[in-house]
Amino acid sequence: MTRADALPDLTQRPAVAVPAPPRRAAVVRDLRTLRVLWRREMLRFVRNRVRIATSLVMPLLFLLILGSGLNSALDQPGAGPSAGPGSGDFRTYLFPGVLLMVVQGPAMTVGALIVWDRQAGFLRQMLVAPVRREALLGGICLGGATSGAAYAVPMLLMAGVVGVPYGFHLLLALAVLVLVAFSFTVLGVLGAVCIKKPETFDIVMGLCAMPLLFLSGALFPVHQLPGWLNAAVLVNPLTYGVDALRRVIPGGTAWAGEDAGPQWWGWTPPVLLELALLALLAVGALTVAARRFSRTD
Questions:
Q1: Cβ within 8 Å of residue 50, ≥6 positions away
Q2: Phi and psi at residue 232, to the nearest 5°
Q3: What is the pLDDT of residues 112-135, one digit of tens each?
Q4: How many angstroms separate the CA atoms of 225 and 282, rounded?
């Protein structure tokens, strides 16, 4: 053995483990991102008072003019379900559907704002920030869901006008509306992540919104539709939001009957199962949108 072999090799330094970033710091950063983007959506909502007012015009027309007109027409002897015993006010039946109309539109509009942010270059600035893109998407969805549900509050205050009594059930209805708003915000965001052109996004959302509303039971009972349309009703997520809301609000099912909601081989799913389906849809769509958003350049 030579003298060089006996000496330690000073050129080889022991490996030093690089500390991973603290998990708590990452969580705090994600929460801060959620708060900032949620606040951004709320500022958009609060500062655009014209949009708030115009968004309530069409639902009010449906409720006060169309609802009153159809209620008078159906109240004639021998005209529709209202002629039978235990019939109710058609405006009370229409009220949950109008609430869904109020929530659905603004929630899906959040996706359009993402498309316009991409066109303006603001989305690229957000994507280069040292935060997770899932947190960016989550903050946008929470803000959209909150603003969407906020649109429903003035309509809930009008419950007494259409014969719905005030009480704790209106708070339950608001909770259902928050879940529906979050679900449709996520669907709108998923569309915005997949579609890059604003014109194409507006056309696709317009084509999707009206069939979803008409085939949900929001405006008329759907249990007597033809079989091929009944299949579309059952796969429509808005159907379960409308039915859950109608069963939470007193008098919501009186005009058409308890069995006017979605039926699975003659079985009516309970409200909790309907809400669980909406929550599952939101989680699945958010997962897909987050993966697509991660690859957005």
A1: none
A2: -65, -35
A3: 888 888 877 777 777 777 778 778
A4: 27
The Cα-based distances of 266 to 217, 220, 269, 277 in angstroms read 17, 20, 10, 18
Compute the residue count for the chain: 297
Instruction: Report d(CA 113, CA 147) in Å as an integer.
Output: 13
DSSP structure class, residue 20: P
Q: How would DSSP label each residue in 239-254?
A: HHHHHHHHHHSTTTTT
Residue type, 254: A
Burial class for 154, CB neighbours closer than 10 Å (0-12, 13-18, 19+): middle
Q: Maximum CA pair distance of the chain?
A: 116
> pLDDT tens, 157-210?
988 888 888 889 899 999 999 999 999 899 888 888 888 888 888 888 888 888
DSSP codes of every residue in 87-127: ---HHHHHHHHHHHHHHHHHHHHHHHHHHHHHHHTHHHHHH
CA distance 151 to 108: 13
**Which residue's entry shows tokens 């229409």?**
94
Distance CA 275, CA 271 (A): 6
CA dist., res. 266 & res. 167, Å (int):
32
Evaluate the CA torsion angle 199, 201, 202, 203 in order and state its sign: positive
Name beta bridge partners: 267.
264
Phi, psi of 253 (to 5 degrees): -110, 5
What burial class does residue 93 get, using C-beta atoms within 10 Å of its C-beta: 0-12 exposed, 13-18 middle, 19+ buried? buried
The predicted model scores a pTM of 0.80
Residue 31 C-alpha from the chain's centroid: 21
Cβ atoms 144, 188 nearer than 8 A: yes
